[in-house]
Amino acid sequence: MKNFLLQAFIWSFMLVSNVPASQVPGGLPVFSRVYDEHRDPYADGREALKLAEETHRKVLIEVGGDWCSWCHVLDRFIKEHPEVETRLHEIFVVLKVNINDENDNAEFMSAFPPAKGYPHMYITDSSGSILHSQDTADFRENKKYSKQRFMVFFKRWQNHNE
Questions:
Q1: Quick one: pLDDT at residue 14?
Q2: Higher local confidence (pLDDT), 23 or 105
Q3: Are strands 120-124 and 130-135 parallel, antiparallel or unpaired?
Q4: Omega before residue 41 within 30° of 0, cis
Q5: Dihedral over alpha carbons 132, 137, 141, 143 (to 10 degrees)
Q6: Residue 15 resides in a domain
Q7: How confident is the model at residue 3 (pLDDT cuts 50, 70, 90)?
Q8: Is residue 22 included in any domain, yes or no?
């Protein structure tokens, strides 16, 4: 019995250890769900690029933070519109990068064109080449995010060849 329990423990440890640390039971990596000033955008970026390559998607880097009211509005909008959320994650691996007074991730952000405001999005191919810089204000209509504008954006990038 003792050997069986030891083997079960080892087997379960091996299964768990094969799951990337950023994965969660819900399926999305932590770096796709939250802004965290303590996360390393380089490490998260490498993981996002690897996942993008494996799944034939692009990376959508969303820059903002918990201090950003429009970032919360965008998160809420995406959660309230399942079609938008589904298409977003079908086409892109989302990488949220925190920007705040305590950690502006200046070195990481120096590789990108300046953001006009927050949240701001950048699209890269699976090798990390920057393809596009996107002001999220372009997704608004009558001071609200527009499902239709997101769907047009997704269609554009779904058909965009690397």
A1: 32
A2: 105
A3: antiparallel
A4: no
A5: 170
A6: no
A7: very low
A8: no
Kindly state the tokens that stand for 108. 């990481």
- Quick one: what percent of the chain has pLDDT higher than 90? 79
- Cα angle: 5, vertex 9, 12; to 5 degrees: 135
CATH of the domain at 39: 3.40.30.10
- pLDDT bucket at 159, cuts 50 / 70 / 90: confident
| pLDDT over 90 (residue 17) | no
- What are 159-162's contacts with CB under 8 Å, separation 24+? 160/58, 160/131, 162/58, 162/125, 162/126
Phi and psi at residue 36, to the nearest 5°: -145, 115
- Single-letter residue type at 150: F
Enter the tokens of residue 32.
């796709």
Contact status, residue 92 vs residue 58, Cβ threshold 8 Å: yes
pTM attached to this predicted model: 0.82
Range of the domain at 143: 30-157
| Strand segments (E) across 16-89 | 58-64
Measured in degrees and rounded to the nearest 5, phi and psi for residue 27 equal 100, -30
Question: Could you give the number of structural domains in the chain?
Answer: 1
